[in-house]
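REQUEST ID: PR-0412
SUBMITTED BY: lab tech R.K.
PRIORITY: routine
TASK: structure prediction, single protein chain
INPUT:
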Amino acid sequence: MAFFATSRSSARLGCRRRLFLRSFSSEHARDNDIVIVGGGPAGLALAAALASNPTAKNSLKITLIEGGDLSKIQDWDMPPSAYSNRVSSITNTSQHFLNRIGVWDYVEHARTNPIHQMQVWDGISGARITFDASEMPESSEMARMTENLNLQRALLRKLSDTPSVQVIQSVKVESIKREAGDRNDWPLVHLSNGATLRARLLVGADGFNSPVRSFAGISSYGWSYDTQAVVAMLNHAPRGPFQAPNNTAYQRFLPTGPIAFLPLSPCTSSLVWSTKPHLAAALNKSSSEVLGQLINAAFRLPEPSLQYIYRRLLEGAHSSEEIKEEIAFRERSDGISSHSAYASATSMISDGGIPPDDADALPPLVISIQQGTVASFPLRYNHAESYLGEGAGSRTVLVGDAAHTVHPLAGQGLNLGLGDVDALSRCIIQALTHGGDIGSYTALIPYARERYFENHKVMSAIDKMHKVYSSTAQPVVWARSVGLEVVNELDSVKAALMMNAGASSRLQNASGWDLFAKSVESLVGAASTSKMVGGMVGAGIQELTKNASQRFFGRH
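STATUS: complete
OUTPUT:
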């Protein structure tokens, strides 16, 4: 029987909870085929994926453990105009997986928004690349934005209709030990309510500080970035009648870190601004009016002017009037017309009128910040050295953040986790179908082989991209800008990149934001091609490179 704490009948629920917990509080360990630790999207998706398969549903005893109160998420509800500040871009590949396991129907689609186009540009040179779903042969959208809570609630509602999965919430894992004897050393999971679960297979979906990873003795490598992410929900005017709907994602790479504008509704978008810790602290302390002005400026002002605004903010210019005057002064100094989309403090563009020619190159001007949505968190890179436990840590497997953590500039963590879950569920079902031991290393090795290199490849590209775009050295800026402009002129290459990055539901999961990383890396490939092929193709790429170089740096 699946157990969920909901508010539908508190008296009956309290009885159900007491009965349920008593059944797990005996002195004897209770056998389970699979114990999943962690009730986040990865853990819930794995339980839902296994429960959606008839063979696994009828053969496996699955228990999921979560230390938090999942009933709050299952009953989560917000007004249509308000949004949670943690959002994700769900690729078409991930949507296909969620639809296949019967979860996508439980998602509140009114709280999702398609991404039809992505615009990414260099904060120093202005080199830009645009990806458009219209260039895809089989998809009308590149990805779909939604709140993490919307997806997590959908997973919980799916599982509430699946009695084959037992969910224990508000109970923490006290310790995990190895059983001695003739049970082939199954892990024993000791819970804070006194219960003990014996697992044929123990799945760690328990985040960065994973107790399952610690028990398995799996080390990890990584580092903390000298940046923090500032998130918020932004209110803005709807696009005018002469503009496309709010279905474009924007990202500008500044030396202090990237700033992203992600559309959620006609009048609401999500901010993810990665920047230096001292600047993130100042942004967090700013009023909503000042923060909105700084966001508008960060997408529009040249880098030297932004550095000046940052200094004024850190020196104590905290009032809305002061910041607006500083931004207006910089706009006039930089020759930005008040009738250009690049003007914010001095803008004279009226809503609903004919927009300027450059209006689609920038996100809408922020009008206000949704109250209570501004937050920040540190950023890190971390990758487990293995996804499978061996020896004393055997019969364990890692998925999601327990296995890998990446910089959010690619909006990629959730999609990588869902890719893990898809691969692991297929691996378990394959072993079950052939009568194998689902917890054995032999049965699980196909999962590790499929996912480890794929995740490492994407994570490395994101890490390199972060480091490359943190540089202000002119040779580095020149190389990355030329590479971006070259790729932007090759429509067939961009279409291939979109298909390879998850915009096609038929291909391996990655992320729409991985497009940019792959584009930067393709500069080397383009240069090699021009040398090897020669003739028209080589000359064409060389001419594109020459034109891009002249455009941004005046080199001949």
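NOTES: The first helix runs from residue 10 to 23.
REVIEWED BY: pending
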